Amino acid sequence: MLKIRNHQDFHVYNLWKIVHNKWASRQNDTLGEVLNSLEMALVYFNPDGTLKTANCRACELIPQLSGRQEERSGDCHNCKVADLCQNNEKPIKTFNELIAYVFDNSLDVAEQSGLFLESENTDATIFREIIKLSNEKFYLVRAVPQKNKETIVELTDISAIKSRADYLFKLGHQNKILTEAVQTIRKGIFIAENKTQEKEFLFVNQAMDHLLQMDCQDYIGKPVFEFFEAAFQGEYEQIKDVLAGKNTKNQIWHIVQDKQGNTVWLELTMFHSGQNGHLLIGFVSDETQNKLQENRLLQTQKLEAIGHMAGGISHDFNNILAIIEGYARIAKTTWKKGEDISPHLDKIYQATQRGSGLTRQLLTFGKHRVSEDKVIDLCRHVEDVKNLLIPLLGVNVKLDMKLEEGNHYIKGTPDIITQIVMNLSINARDAMQDKGTITIEVLSQYREDKENGFLLRIADTGCGMSQEIMERMFDPFFTTKEQGKGTGLGLSMVYGLVQQMKGDMLVDSEVGQGTTFSIWFPESEAPVQEEDNKPDLSQDQFLYNKTVLLAEDEPDLLEIMKGTLEEFGMNVLTSLNGNQALEVQDEYDGKIDFLLTDMVMPEIGGIQLAELFHVVRPDTHIIFMSGYPVRGEISEVDLPDDVIFLAKPVSQENLKNVMEQVYLGKNVETPSGVVWE
Amino acid sequence: MSKSEDSIKSLKVLVVDDQIEIRTMLRGMLSELGITQIFEAADGKEAMVFTDNAMDMIDVVICDWNMPKLSGIDLLRQMRSVYPDVPFLMITGRSDVESVSMAKASGVTAYIRKPFSPAHLEVKLRVIKSKMDSKHIA
Question: What is the DSSP string of B36-64?
Answer without folding.
Answer: -EEEEESSHHHHHHHHHHHGGG-SEEEEE
